[in-house]
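As a warm-up, study this chain.
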Amino acid sequence: MDLEMDADADIDSTEFSKYVVDRMQQLELKNDLLEKQYQKVETEKQLAEDQRLKYERELRKLRSELDKLKTTPQLVGTLVNVLDEGKSIVRSSTGPEFIVGSSQFIKDGDLKPGVQVALNKEHLSIVAVIPRSEDPLVQAMEVIESPDIDYDQIGGLDKQIEVLKGAVEFALTKPEIFERIGIDPPKGVLLFGPPGTGKTLLAKAVATRTDATFIRVVGSELVQKYIGEGARMVRDVFEMARKKAPAIIFIDELDSIGAVRLDDASSGGREVQRTLMQLLSEMDGFNSRGDVCILAATNRWDVLDPALIRPGRFDRLVYVPIPDREARVKILLIHTEKMRLADDVDFDRIATLTEDANGAALRAIVMEAGMCAVREEKDAVHQKDFEDAIKHIMNPEGMVDRYSEGMFA
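Now compare it with the structure written out below.
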């Protein structure tokens, strides 16, 4: 009996142990599941926290932007003079002058007469100094890459090239020569002559031969709509040239702003005169131009103002004439250097047939002769092609017929 009870007790103990083990395994599985759920909740909580911080930063940014948009606008003025005890005289954009105070956060060295300042709208005190910005139109006038033109690509202008070498090129590349002689180099050179004779080509060659900053200005670009804008652009051009000296300012079509001043000019004419007066002041004013040389070109030298072409502003007046027979031969040789020519081409005869032709017309004749050979699918350009080209280019009636055929064919 006792043995049976012991056996039953052992069975119950074994079953209980199995139950406990199974229960522990279930609890461990459930604990693992809860641990995974807890980690998932923690991850979601962290993501939600990060998202909250992101939205808070975006909210602060939007509020800051909104505060900026709600800020009271400021007036733009010009500092006239700096007085004692933190006071300054400013001229507002509307014209009147005021004596005002300035912010303590502005350095005294930044307050200089002529600078633009921001003024508080209510009490007109100076709250900031506006940095000077350069006009993008003026910056675009600087020629970054030198033109691929040299003196050997210009025919028939040997005398003019020698003058430019001495007056412009040597003044910038060999200033010690002038110092040794004891004279100042010329400050300005005016190229004048009929259209198409190579004035702009000479300026491009000068830009190639010198390492100076080359600033190209077309005179009509300085004629602006609003009062004072043209004069301001002239000041900015010369200021940029002084900063990047040595520099060459090339003004093409000078007659567009340098014509003789008239008493009965219209409002537009008066604005052109203001631009001209600013140019005269910059060329020969109290402020030294330094290593800045002016090179200008025009084909209407007869209308230029006498004050513009006097010595001291343009020290050298270089006439660029219509090429003579010998010069025309040189120009033709330059333009036909890369062309395949037949043996019957006679440049002397071509030069004789092109009397009174300028360099641009000779270039057009060479191009037209090449086109004649292309249309007829020839292997080279013959003398007849040049003669046909001369008839088309030099004969105005032929030009009209040629353009008419091209338009309505």
